[in-house]
Amino acid sequence: MDIGEKIREERIKKGLKQCQLANKAGISNTYLSDIEVGRTTPSIKTLMKIAKALDVDCTVFLKPDN
Predict the structure, then answer these.
(1) Tens of pLDDT, residues 17-29
(2) Which entry of 2, 12, 49, 56 is 20 to 30 Å from 23 by CA?
(3) pTM as predicted
Protein backbone atom coordinates (compact mmCIF):
# COMPACT_ATOMS: atom_id res chain seq x y z
CA MET A 1 0.00 0.00 0.00
CA ASP A 2 1.45 3.38 -0.97
CA ILE A 3 1.26 6.69 0.89
CA GLY A 4 -1.83 7.87 -0.98
CA GLU A 5 -3.73 4.68 -0.21
CA LYS A 6 -2.81 4.98 3.47
CA ILE A 7 -4.01 8.60 3.54
CA ARG A 8 -7.29 7.58 1.91
CA GLU A 9 -7.72 4.74 4.42
CA GLU A 10 -7.18 7.09 7.38
CA ARG A 11 -9.52 9.69 5.86
CA ILE A 12 -12.30 7.13 5.48
CA LYS A 13 -11.73 5.82 9.03
CA LYS A 14 -12.25 9.40 10.29
CA GLY A 15 -15.41 9.75 8.21
CA LEU A 16 -14.10 12.68 6.18
CA LYS A 17 -14.78 13.52 2.55
CA GLN A 18 -11.82 14.50 0.38
CA CYS A 19 -12.91 18.13 0.33
CA GLN A 20 -13.15 18.20 4.13
CA LEU A 21 -9.65 16.80 4.62
CA ALA A 22 -8.20 19.04 1.93
CA ASN A 23 -9.74 22.07 3.64
CA LYS A 24 -8.43 21.03 7.07
CA ALA A 25 -4.95 20.42 5.64
CA GLY A 26 -4.90 23.66 3.64
CA ILE A 27 -4.43 21.99 0.26
CA SER A 28 -6.64 21.76 -2.81
CA ASN A 29 -9.08 18.92 -3.24
CA THR A 30 -7.53 18.17 -6.64
CA TYR A 31 -4.07 17.83 -5.10
CA LEU A 32 -5.38 15.51 -2.36
CA SER A 33 -7.14 13.42 -4.99
CA ASP A 34 -3.90 13.17 -7.01
CA ILE A 35 -2.05 12.03 -3.87
CA GLU A 36 -4.65 9.42 -2.96
CA VAL A 37 -4.68 7.83 -6.42
CA GLY A 38 -0.89 7.89 -6.73
CA ARG A 39 -0.53 10.50 -9.49
CA THR A 40 1.75 12.56 -7.26
CA THR A 41 3.72 12.16 -4.05
CA PRO A 42 3.33 14.78 -1.33
CA SER A 43 6.25 16.70 0.10
CA ILE A 44 7.12 16.06 3.74
CA LYS A 45 5.57 19.42 4.62
CA THR A 46 2.28 18.47 2.93
CA LEU A 47 2.36 15.01 4.48
CA MET A 48 2.71 16.62 7.90
CA LYS A 49 -0.26 18.92 7.20
CA ILE A 50 -2.40 15.94 6.18
CA ALA A 51 -1.33 13.94 9.24
CA LYS A 52 -2.17 16.87 11.53
CA ALA A 53 -5.58 17.27 9.87
CA LEU A 54 -6.23 13.55 10.43
CA ASP A 55 -4.83 13.70 13.98
CA VAL A 56 -2.29 10.95 13.32
CA ASP A 57 1.50 10.80 13.34
CA CYS A 58 2.94 11.19 9.84
CA THR A 59 4.96 7.98 10.32
CA VAL A 60 1.66 6.09 9.89
CA PHE A 61 1.95 6.81 6.17
CA LEU A 62 5.61 5.81 5.94
CA LYS A 63 5.56 2.42 7.66
CA PRO A 64 6.11 -0.53 5.33
CA ASP A 65 3.27 -2.98 4.81
CA ASN A 66 3.45 -6.34 6.54
Answers:
(1) 999 999 999 999 9
(2) 2
(3) 0.91
